[in-house]
Amino acid sequence: MSKAGALNLASGLGGKIDKSDVLSAVEKYEKYHVCYGGDEEERKANYTDMVNKYYDLVTSFYEFGWGESFHFAPRFKEESLRESIKRHEHFLALQLGLKPGQKVLDVGCGIGGPLREIARFSSTTITGLNNNEYQISRGKELNRITGVDRTCDFVKGDFMKMPFPDNVFDAVYAIEATCHAPDAYGCYSEIYRVLKPGQCFAAYEWCMTDSFDPLNQEHQKIKAEIEIGDGLPDIRLTGQCIDALKKAGFEVMWSKDLAAGSPLPWYLPLDKSHFSLSSFRLTAVGRFFTKNMVKALEYVGLAPKGSQRVQDFLEKAAEGLVEGGRKEIFTPLFFFVARKPHSGSQ
């Protein structure tokens, strides 16, 4: 692990939060969640604050370990994590039927890894909607570096109240992002509003599967670990997403949990029993080194106090994700394509 990599991680920890306030931000974030006595309604009522704090705290960790695209993907044997992620993004672009010159919206775009890849793959103009200032500033910097800053941009805004006029985008997509919405129907309704009639919305959603038993304590523990480790107010069932799409006015063209039938499990990069040189930082050994590096950086004052706590709840999330995947009660790969009718109205 290079000295430059360590210093880049340290410089980004905490995002836009003042370095002296990181520890108190971590404590406030933790209190939203069940593990610390919080409840679902409070998380939903304060989702903007909760999700912003989450991404200020974790973005540098994500980029350090995962790269620019913060999402999972079904994976073939002999395929690297990076290759599977790119293919997953290309698949979405193909399912939407993107054409050169179209105006596309990425809802909850992170630092824009998928946005840049899809824009180059499809020759489209993509706007990334994000409510986190730190991620937007980092995304703009990466757009300049990769040379897509003339065709791709970012807009700061809440996907429950989008700052766009009606019927303006040729296509809309979301990659593991609208799971942060406190209400799926409200979010999908806004997407419906800004999408042109006859055009499509596609997404990968984080969901509990039909195998999830809300009365099973182990299942509840896994769900709670994923929620605290990933900034989620609640995790919906796959059927609830479909119902919300239809209620918002969409015609659901098709949907499928892409985790089913994947040659390699989507959670493999986080599985401690798995070792890979190509994604070393995500392995048990890599995470051990990162943990001790963050501990040392915090001790000498290069990383803000509270950085270790952030890594602790990310580790808890990784454990919940792996167990949720193994038990097939959770999927980050529920995919759907939905169409806004030409003459329909909500």
From TrEMBL:
Residues 54-341 form the SAM-dependent methyltransferase Erg6/SMT-type domain. It holds the Pfam family Methyltransf_11. Its EC number is 2.1.1.-. GO terms for molecular function: sterol 24-C-methyltransferase activity. Pathway: Steroid biosynthesis; sterol biosynthesis. It is an enzyme of class 2 (transferase). Keywords: Lipid biosynthesis, Lipid metabolism, Methyltransferase, S-adenosyl-L-methionine, Steroid biosynthesis, Steroid metabolism, Sterol biosynthesis, Sterol metabolism, Transferase. GO terms for cellular component: endoplasmic reticulum. Belongs to the class I-like SAM-binding methyltransferase superfamily. Erg6/SMT family. This is Methyltransferase. It comes from Salix koriyanagi. The lineage of its organism: Eukaryota, Viridiplantae, Streptophyta, Embryophyta, Tracheophyta.
